[in-house]
Design brief:
This protein has about 300 residues and is an alpha+beta fold.
């Protein structure tokens, strides 16, 4: 898109909080997936991949103002919700339902930014409508073209952006997209038994993610107001201004299931219980269920023929 404003206006492109002080903390690094975390929960395995090859080391972090969303939901509730999502589904492989799998649900904090932004500016579209017309005695399609210029000026809804790359961003958004979270000033007492994942995305890349997310959503919203069949962006001059930016630790219950060469995740928001389970369907389970249905239908048909 030509004319795209590549820099946030009131937010530095690298999300620099201008913090000069630093401190050293002890962390564990997983040698398999590279996840780095403060092992407040006394974990013996990696929080993400469950690998047991952990290396203890020291890292330097900036002493930035930090917020935290306390856990309200219990691990029992997370286990109950996960079972509800998979246990009675006949197509889900038994591996997902095993007690040894379920008991790997971990209570962790994930790093993120919580933002409120304002968007204004203009977007010009090439718009068009197709209609049938007669030419030389034949009906053909003709497109009427229009130039559409729209202005926008609104506050974009508050949203979270994860700064941990090893979980799919869309999965994080599904459970952590909360408009009115309970934000508290960071307190060590809130994480005394909860492991904390460290950020692994550079601030400049986080800023790019924010621009892409906001820009994509705004263009989608604007397009809905254009009453034409074709809507192609010609010039995008949207300006994105930050109203508020906070570094926040999000409470999450995480379960990683490694099954036949693929990783599947269950995530539950530790504040409000919003959750999502990635699952797969097993070929054997589908075959067994299909055979069961065939037997039941055949039995019912037999009874109908015999007694009616």
């Amino acid at each position: 898109m030509s004319g795209y404003n590549s820099e946030l206006q009131s937010l530095p492109s690298n999300l620099d909080f201008n913090t000069n002080s630093e401190s050293t903390i002890s962390v564990f690094r997983c040698e398999k997936c590279g996840t780095v975390f403060q092992n407040k929960g006394g974990e013996k395995k990696c929080l993400l991949c469950n690998h047991d090859s952990l290396v203890e080391e020291q890292i330097t972090v900036s002493d930035e103002r930090l917020y935290i969303i306390p856990f309200i939901k219990s691990q029992k509730e997370a286990i109950f919700n996960y079972k509800k999502a998979v246990f009675w589904n006949p197509f889900v492989p038994m591996f997902f339902k095993k007690k040894s799998t379920i008991m790997n649900i971990k209570k962790i904090y994930l790093p993120s930014y919580f933002l409120e932004v304002h968007v204004d500016g203009n977007v010009s579209f090439f718009a068009g409508d197709k209609s049938k017309v007669k030419k030389n005695g034949e009906k053909v399609f003709e497109t009427k073209r229009y130039d559409v210029l729209l202005s926008t000026n609104f506050d974009y809804f508050p949203f979270f952006v994860s700064t941990y790359s090893k979980l799919p961003e869309e999965l994080f958004e599904l459970v952590c997209e909360v408009k009115n979270p309970i934000l508290q000033e960071y307190d060590d007492s809130l994480i005394k038994d909860v492991s904390v994942v460290q950020s692994d995305i550079e601030n400049v890349d986080v800023a790019a993610m924010i621009r892409e997310k906001v820009n994509k959503h705004c263009l989608s919203t604007i397009r809905k107001g254009i009453k034409h069949q074709l809507k192609k962006v010609q010039q995008n001059d949207l300006q994105i201004h930050s109203n508020s930016i906070k570094k926040v630790l999000c409470p999450v219950y995480l379960l990683t299931i490694s099954y036949r060469g693929h990783d599947y995740y269950y995530l539950m928001n530790g504040e409000n219980g919003r959750d999502y389970a990635q699952i797969c369907f097993g070929k054997i389970e589908i075959a067994i269920f299909s055979l069961f249905l065939v037997i039941i239908i055949s039995l019912i048909s037999y009874l109908i023929v015999m007694y009616l």
